[in-house]
Amino acid sequence: MFCTPEQRQIGRWIENHYDIDKVQCAEIVTKNAVRLTLRGHEPTILILRQNGRMDQIPEAALFEAAV
Which domain of life is it from (predicted)? Predict the structure, then answer.
């Protein structure tokens, strides 16, 4: 599923922070970003920064910023 080292690190972060049964979908967006959808919640974009920090941005906020 996750191919790059960054994607594997995001996958480990998801496993450590969420109950896997609540994860509906984890979809690769870029080599360092994943769209995470939890059951009953809106999608969130997880972005792994170069300094190792994980940013969580609601997907809807990205579209608002683009308009």
Answer: Bacteria
